[in-house]
């Protein structure tokens, strides 16, 4: 049933968490451009070395290079029954490439896009309130505070805030989202195979809503592509 699935939303909406739940539900992989890039660089492939050279100069990896990496990943056997895209496409150029790629390689299973919606202030608290122990235990000063401020409940270790979780970094990420990825959401909304899900609820409830939307949209897509009798 899944086929290609795209999770969209601003930083902190929970795309990664929901992608892992969908992986377990449907037995399909999560495709993250961050993971792909790390793999290509670690294995020192031709594309990975190209990306390394650009990143070492402080330059962004261009869309065409990202697209080539994604194309290689989508050809892997574990993607045969579908996959969950998380963090790609981020730009209209990437979305246009993906549309063309899927129309050529998997025309009978169009992409289903689901956008997670969470208010800005909630996202701000989710990210900037996050504290992590050396063992990887996660707290939040607003929603899940430790019993002793700044200390892990389990081993008493000092909790730290990651550099990426600071207010200035969050605001920069939201600007990028507004400039680029918000347009991608509208791109897929216009295609019709699109649903919005309230992400400001318990994880399990969000998951149930996503699965329900996927089933409904996939059924609708199959019905619209079925040949007309007679």
Pick out its properties:
single chain; 230 residues; alpha/beta; 5-stranded parallel sheet; two-stranded antiparallel sheet; 13% strand; globular
Q: Can you tell me about this structure?
A:
This protein has about 230 residues and is α/β, with parallel strands linked by helices. Helix content is about 50%, strand content about 15%. It has eight helices and seven strands, in the order βαβαααβαβαββαβα. The chain has helices spanning about 15-25, 35-40, 45-55, 65-75, 90-105, 120-130, 165-190, 205-225, and strands at about 5-10, 30, 80-85, 110-115, 130, 140, 195-200. The strands form two sheets. Strands 2-3-1-4-7 form a five-stranded parallel beta sheet, sandwiched between helices. It has a two-stranded antiparallel ribbon with strand order 5-6. α1 (about 15-25) crosses α8 and α4 (about 65-75) runs parallel beside α5. The protein is globular.
Give me the Rg, rounded: 19 Å
Averaged pLDDT, please? 90
The main sheet orders its strands as 2-3-1-4-7
Which structural class best describes the helix and strand composition?
alpha/beta
What percent strand? Answer: 5-15%
The number of strands is 7
The sequence of SSEs as H and E is EHEHHHEHEHEEHEH
Helix content: 40-55%
Largest sheet: 5 strands, parallel
Spatial gap, N to C terminus: 27 Å
* Spatial shape: globular
Low-confidence stretches: none
Helix tally equals 8
